[in-house]
Design a protein that fits this description.
The chain has 500 residues and is an alpha/beta fold. Helices cover 27% and strands 21% of the residues. The chain has 16 helices and 22 strands. Bound molecules: NADP nicotinamide-adenine-dinucleotide phosphate. NADP nicotinamide-adenine-dinucleotide phosphate binds next to helix 10 and strand 15.
């Protein structure tokens, strides 16, 4: 039976390069790569060799005969992307070995045509680790990495949910990279506190800023200062033992928690808040969070999107994973009335079908666990409070047009809640001494070269969320970092050529 990519897919495309028959798509050079929610194996072309299994850093690829019942839905998800009849008239990724050469490029990098280089990387999250890996392929490059926390690997340690053990396994890959003899990682070393950016630039031939997007977008509505309002990202930090959030407190005795926004972070938080504490005990979840979950009084976690089901920011693999996790999910069938997916958008069609399935056949309810309810078309207008404490949220009802635009209908809806979590995305913070695009929360750049207006800032580069914004999966950072290192390399080699 062919192999199947499952929910843990990190999208770093290692499997694509390992596959001898080019049956995993989209590849990094295909247009869909940047937007795909995961990679897919063509069941008709897969030769079942298992090369991809060895290459995958997160154990996401499983031979068909070893799939667990929870992973079975991914057989259809993979196959649908190659199905000529199901959603589109043509195969999505035409796999024709007569026309396409297998990728599998076992490349020895061309030596750097420049003197030895010492590069500083700020941060040690996924984009930093993938950048170091790419740099260290060049024999005359050494790398020093500066990490402000006592433990490395950033969001793969502190952002991935504790029950996503496969995804967290990417840290084994980063451990391997960290052991490289030409890489030094300095922990507890914060640029801007222990060393200035100028000092860093003086000591290294180049600086690569990979500091991520460490804060969250702010929800600009009245009432967010009240007790009982918090960001979902702070809750993620709390249950993952992030040192900045160990003192956070969340009232889990409340009957209803409202999560504003419906991206994958919202799903993570909803899944953990409603999870089985005995199962979570076997994960790395923080012990205070586990204790709080054991005594929770929550009956419902309401996950609210301001647009419709088709515009929901959660991805299909995460929705399937949630549905298969034993969570009690409720979708009111009327939320799906009149909603029609674009027949050419395979993922949207499958997502709508999955929501329809949940609405029609809600998973069996475990009375010991709170319910997760999805609501759509509700934009937060005000956090309702009483004597400084959250009592609920006032939403404005939107009508959603076919192109996904939300228009207020004039109707408002009040929802009672004792805890409101804003899960509307991460945001980058400015780096003193470097330009910053406040709206997008990124450092302006051209393929990773930091740009001050139309001039590059000499020797300073960016990668990851501070470069492109807080989107994509862990593995997305691999191609992003390769892009930045290509820019760095071109600059170093042209400077070297100019001096000879
Ligand atoms: P996200 O995917 O960008 O979702 C943000 C959500 O907030 C959207 O529903 C958005 O709605 C909504 N929103 C934004 N501004 C709002 C406002 N003012 N009022 C109400 N709603 C608002 O963000 P995220 O969940 O933080 O995820 C960040 C990235 O990490 C994503 O790429 C995600 O896939 C990734 N991630 C992946 C995983 C995983 O694979 N397991 C886990 C966690 C995170 P609109 O669409 O209407 O703007």
């Amino acid at each position: 039976m062919p192999h199947v990519v499952t929910q843990a897919c990190c999208g770093d495309a290692s499997c694509v390069y390992a596959c001898p028959v080019n049956c995993i798509h989209p590849t990094p050079d295909e247009p869909d790569f940047g937007t795909a929610e995961m990679l897919y194996i063509d069941p008709a072309t897969c030769v079942d060799c298992g090369a991809c299994v060895t290459a995958c850093p997160v154990g996401a690829i499983v031979p068909g005969h070893r799939l667990t019942p929870e992973q079975q839905p991914f057989v259809g998800v993979n196959a649908a992307h190659y199905d000529a009849d199901l959603f589109a008239n043509e195969k999505r990724f035409p796999v024709d070995m007569g026309k396409r050469l297998p990728l599998a490029p076992v490349t020895t990098p061309r030596p750097l045509q420049a003197p030895p280089q010492h590069v500083a990387i700020v941060g040690s999250g996924p984009s930093a680790m993938y950048a170091a890996d790419e740099l260290l392929r060049l024999p005359n490059v050494t790398v020093t990495m500066y990490e402000r926390l006592a433990k490395p690997f950033g969001l793969s340690r502190y952002g991935v949910a504790p029950d996503h053990t496969h995804t967290r396994a990417v840290m084994h890959l980063f451990d391997d990279i960290a052991r490289h003899p030409r890489l030094r990682i300095l922990l507890n070393c914060e640029i801007g506190r222990d060393l200035s950016l100028d000092q860093l630039r003086e000591r290294h031939d180049a600086v690569l800023w990979a500091g991520g997007a460490p804060t969250d977008k702010s929800l600009d509505i009245p009432g967010t200062e009240a007790d009982g309002f918090a960001s979902a990202t702070s809750m993620v930090g709390w249950y993952n033992d992030h040192p900045d959030f160990v003192d956070a407190r969340f009232d889990l005795s409340t009957e209803r928690v409202v999560v504003i926004g419906n991206g994958n972070v919202a799903l993570d938080v909803a899944r953990i808040l409603t999870g089985d504490p005995d199962a979570l005990e076997k994960t790395t979840i923080s012990r205070p969070a586990l204790a709080a979950l054991r005594s929770r009084g929550i009956g419902e976690v309401l996950v609210v999107g301001r647009r419709g089901p088709l515009q929901a920011a959660f991805t299909l693999p995460e929705l399937i994973g949630l549905a298969e996790s034993g969570a009690s999910i409720v979708v009111d069938p009327t939320e799906l009335d009149g909603v029609v997916a674009d027949p050419d958008d395979i993922t949207a069609g499958l997502k709508l079908a999955e929501l329809g399935e949940i609405a029609a056949n809600p998973p069996a309810r475990d009375p010991s666990r709170p319910v997760i309810r999805f609501a759509f078309g509700l934009a937060p207008q005000e956090i309702l409070t009483d004597r400084g404490r959250v009592t609920g949220v006032r939403f404005a009802r939107n009508s959603i047009s076919a192109d996904g635009t939300a228009t207020p209908t004039g109707e408002t809806v009040d929802v009672d809640a004792g805890l409101v979590l804003s899960s509307i995305g991460y945001h980058g913070v400015p780096v003193p001494g470097l330009p910053f695009d406040e709206r997008r929360g990124v450092i302006p750049n051209d393929h990773g070269r930091v740009m001050d207006g139309d001039r590059p800032v000499s020797g300073v580069y960016v990668t990851g969320w501070i470069k492109r914004g807080p989107t994509g999966f862990i593995g997305t950072n691999k191609t992003d970092s390769i892009d930045t290192i290509a820019s760095w390399r071109a600059d170093v080699e042209s400077a070297a050529a100019a001096t000879t």
